[in-house]
Write a structure and sequence with these properties.
Elements lengths: L10 E9 L2 E8 L5 E7 L6 E3 L5 E3 L2 H11 L9 H16 L3 E3 H13 L3 H11 L5 H15 L14 H15 L1
Parallel strand pairs: 4-6
Antiparallel strand pairs: 1-2, 2-3, 4-5
This protein binds zinc ion (ZN).
The site of zinc ion (ZN) has 8 residues, from loops.
């Protein structure tokens, strides 16, 4: 690795240690003396996705990203959320150490995470992925989310599904019916 400061081709290792899944090396440039860090990691072998029709396709992070990005379009999520989600899933897939993985499992992983993040994105993704058989199945899922929403169980990171006024109304209605 060339020195990032002066571009010199040679450096010496001043420290090296094992990190999670590789080796971290602290290096010093032999020309300008600047220090920088490199990571050495095993290149994972190809990962294949088993599709519904049983065909195999090489795992593509770009495809994964596109799917998540579509679901999250115009949702007020913090910058970098989508990329981080895809990174996490990719890392977990490789950690599992399997050569082939059913597409449905990847879909579940995405849905799990979106559910904790933004229900709208979750429903969008699920409607493509799970292919809700009909509008009733979709409504059922939305109803479950809406009833979770009014309970304390809603993850703090979750964006509100309903406008605040509606939430208050639902909560009041609930209180009244409990009396
Ligand atoms: Zn240098």
């Amino acid at each position: 690795m060339n020195c990032p400061f002066c571009g010199y081709y040679n450096s010496k290792v001043v420290d090296s240690r094992d990190v999670n899944d590789g080796i971290r090396r602290r290096r010093q440039c032999l020309s300008c003396g600047s220090r920088f860090t490199t990571y050495e990691r095993l290149q994972p072998t190809g990962l294949f996705v088993i599709k519904k029709d049983q065909r195999r396709e090489e795992f593509s992070k770009d495809k994964l990203l596109t799917g998540i990005r579509k679901a999250c379009e115009k949702r007020p999520l913090p910058t970098g959320t989508v990329d981080k989600l895809a990174d996490d899933i990719e890392a977990e897939l490789y950690r599992r150490g399997r050569v082939e993985i059913p597409n449905a499992i990847i879909g579940d992983m995405v849905m799990d995470r979106l559910k904790g993040l933004d229900y709208i994105a979750y429903i969008r993704f699920a409607s493509v992925y799970r292919e809700f058989a009909d509008i009733t199945a979709l409504k059922q899922e939305v109803d479950t989310l809406v009833s979770n929403e009014t309970e304390a169980s809603r993850p703090i990171s979750q964006l509100p599904l309903l406008p605040t006024e509606e939430l208050v109304t639902v909560a009041k209605r609930r209180q009244r019916s409990q009396k």
